[in-house]
Write a structure and sequence with these properties.
Elements (H helix, E strand, L loop, with lengths): L11 E5 L5 E4 L6 E5 L8 E5 L6 E5 L5 E4 L5 E5 L8 E5 L5 E5 L5 E5 L2 E6 L9 E4 L4 E6 L4 E6 L4 E6 L9 E6 L2 E5 L5 E2 L5 E2 L9 E5 L2 E5 L6 E4 L4 E4 L11 E5 L3 E5 L5 E3 L7 E4 L8 E5 L6 E4 L5 E4 L5 E5 L9 E5 L2 E5 L5 E4 L5 E5 L9 E4 L4 E2 L2 E2 L2 E5 L6 E5 L5 E6 L2 E5 L5 E4 L5 E5 L6 E6 L2 E5 L5 E4 L5 E5 L8 E2 L1
Antiparallel strand pairs: 1-4, 1-12, 2-3, 4-5, 5-8, 6-7, 8-9, 10-11, 13-14, 13-16, 13-24, 14-15, 16-17, 18-19, 20-21, 22-23, 25-28, 25-36, 26-27, 28-29, 30-31, 32-33, 34-35, 37-41, 38-39, 39-40, 41-42, 43-44, 45-46, 46-49, 47-48
Family: Belongs to the fascin family.
GO molecular function: actin filament binding; protein-macromolecule adaptor activity
Protein name: Fascin
């Protein structure tokens, strides 16, 4: 069986100093300061580990340059490779903040505004940085020791760490950032408490500080103990350890979209009958759920089954779920047709549904039998991030901001080929006559989603136009073509 196909997310974050300001890499002159009040592009740093010494890290700016300190404590950010002045050690503090120590010169990095240096020999508040993760907050959580994924187990009222493949909506976890700490939220909007129980409200027992060890994450609770999987089902709760070992380490992995497909005959495409794919089922189970993995270069898509195999084009246009490796015959081009999609196989033919429900790639054009309704099932909680930041309710009006460093969680509901997007207050998104996306609708308006790129989707309003973030950071529903401002991480 192929591995899960998910890669650990690159650790990207903002660093907040003792004055609540973010470490910033300026575009001009490769200067650094700590003046910004919020996390935007210039405040995002990527952590890279040294290949020989896992304790040593490099901090890469959004310009692809590395933070460095010389023997006099002067800090720059123009090195374009890993040189000795760029080597730092992370010294984690009990409150979750980090001290960054130059490995070469053994001094600590800190300061405020334009006065940053790496010259302190002892730690004060000025040398401590809070970590604000900048990656998309919805992910799959993999236990390093057990090599199993976490998921909500509704029957047992817990998060269990016992999945081989993160499947279905239950495997989606959302990291919620609150006052320098993180909560883990399940797909039914409950928070993980350190005793393993799931609570409807966040509080002291649901807040964890993030620690990094050998490039992996550990979650430290309010008592100084770490989350780890316990017992046969891997119940996630705090153990006895006050130092993280292998059992306490996790990877966050990107969560691919998982979908169900309904054919023109009103039935779901399924693998329940064996290896050949057929649209002949009336309910949605794991057998009717497929993971869409979009190739970064070709934008073509593979469909993976819950058993870990891929759809593949076989002789005479047949489609079977037998492939264990990627090839040209496991790639399908997705054509987005408003409320429906059509799939083109590697033989240049469209997939159509035969009278007995069988899927065959034999059609030259798109008619009713070639059209499928595609429904995204593993984003009931929707968090959208564009090129300038997250989508969030505007403070003083019914519009939406698309350039915020904090996010709102929206609810995604599917109905007859379209989606309704609902805010925390229970009101719906709609596009008004001026082309603004508003969030105070009493009745739901239909939007269509197009899963176009690896990790990114586009949203069309009922006017057929794309939702995009404009220059001022406002969300508008007036995009005529697909631009970078209309693509959203989800």
């Amino acid at each position: 069986m192929p591995a899960n196909g998910n890669r650990p997310l690159k650790l990207q974050f903002g660093l907040i100093n003792h004055e609540g300001r973010y470490l910033t890499a300026e575009t001009f002159g490769f200067k650094v300061n700590a003046s910004a009040p919020s996390l935007k592009k210039k405040q995002i740093w990527t952590l890279e580990q040294d290949s020989q010494d896992t304790q040593v890290v490099y901090l890469r700016s959004h310009l692809g340059r590395y933070l460095a300190s010389d023997k006099d404590g002067k800090v720059t950010c123009e090195a374009d490779g890993h040189n000795s002045d760029c080597r730092f050690l992370i010294v984690a503090q009990s409150d979750g903040r980090w001290a960054l120590q130059s490995e070469q010169h053994l001094r600590f990095f800190g300061g405020s505004r334009d006065y940053l240096s790496c010259f302190a020999q002892i730690l004060t508040d000025a040398e401590l940085w809070a970590v604000h993760l900048a990656l998309h907050p919805q992910a799959n959580l993999l236990s390093v020791a057990r090599k199993r994924y976490a998921h909500l187990s509704k029957e047992d009222g817990e998060i269990a760490v016992d999945l081989n493949i993160p499947w279905g909506v239950a495997a989606l976890l959302t990291l919620v950032y609150l006052d320098g700490k993180y909560c883990l939220k399940t797909c039914d909007s409950r928070f993980l408490s350190n005793d393993g129980k799931l609570l409807t409200q966040s509080g002291r027992a649901t807040a964890y500080t993030l620690e990094l060890k050998c490039g992996k994450l550990a979650f430290k609770d309010c008592e100084g103990k770490y989350l780890s999987p316990m017992g046969p089902t891997g119940t996630l709760r705090s153990g006895r350890c006050s130092k993280p070992g292998k059992d306490e380490l996790f990877d966050l992995e990107e969560s691919h979209p998982q979908v169900v497909l309904m054919a023109a005959n009103g039935r779901y495409v399924s693998i329940r009958q064996g290896v050949s794919l057929a649209a002949n089922q009336e309910d949605e189970t794991d057998m009717e759920t497929f993971q869409m993995e979009i190739d970064k270069e070709t934008r073509k898509c593979t469909f993976r089954t819950s058993q870990g195999n891929y759809w593949a084009l076989v002789a005479h246009g047949g489609i079977q779920s037998t492939a264990t490796e990627l090839s040209a015959n496991t790639m399908f081009a997705v054509e987005w047709l408003g409320h429906k999609v059509a799939l083109k196989a590697n033989n240049g033919k469209y997939i159509c549904i035969k009278k007995n429900g069988q899927l065959l790639a034999v059609s030259d054009s798109i008619g009713e039998d070639e059209q499928l309704t595609l429904k995204l099932i593993n984003r009931p909680m929707l968090i959208l991030r564009g090129e300038n930041g997250f989508i969030c309710h505007h403070k003083n009006s019914n519009t939406l901001d698309a350039s915020r460093s904090v996010y709102d969680i929206f609810t995604l509901q599917f109905s007859n080929g379209v989606y309704h997007i609902k805010g925390v207050d229970g009101q719906f998104w709609y596009v008004n006559s001026a082309g603004l996306v508003c969030s105070d609708g009493e009745t739901p308006e239909g939007f269509t989603l197009e899963l176009l790129e690896h990790g990114r989707l586009a949203i069309r309003g009922k006017n057929g136009k794309y939702l995009r973030g404009d220059q001022g950071g406002t969300l508008k529903g007036d995009g005529l073509s697909l631009s970078s401002s209309a693509l959203w991480e989800y």
